[in-house]
Amino acid sequence: MNLHVIALFKFNENYLMDAVELFQNLVKETRKEEGCLQYDLIEDKDNKGTFFMVELWESVEHHNRHNGQDHLLDFRKDASKIMESAVEVYKGFKIY
């Protein structure tokens, strides 16, 4: 069963260019992963510095493997220094 994930990120406005650079590498590398069906970065149109990642994974197992990938671990380490708050992550299965 496919796993849908939404991750919400809030960055300090002074570091938006840095955030985008970090995201670019993360998205590029993640899209190469087995089981990644969708991995899209969206910027909130009304809230500067707010981004959300829309993810679709073939399975929970594929997503679990993603969580251990070096490019994600590096992103978390670097992004945590310039974020306003902790990442919010929502996971679920399509109902209808």
UniProtKB/TrEMBL annotation:
Gene3D superfamilies: 3.30.70.100
Keywords assigned by UniProt, alphabetized: Monooxygenase, Oxidoreductase
EC number: 1.-.-.-
Entry annotated with the keyword Oxidoreductase: yes
Pfam families listed in its UniProt record: ABM
Oxidoreductase as UniProt keyword: yes
ABM domain span: 3-91
Entry superkingdom: Bacteria
SUPFAM superfamilies to which the protein is assigned, alphabetical: Dimeric alpha+beta barrel
InterPro entries hit by this protein: ABM_dom, AI-2_Isomerase_LsrG, Dimeric_a/b-barrel
Class of this enzyme: oxidoreductase
GO MF term list: monooxygenase activity
Official protein name in the record: Antibiotic biosynthesis monooxygenase
Species name: Chryseobacterium carnipullorum
Gene field: ycnE_2
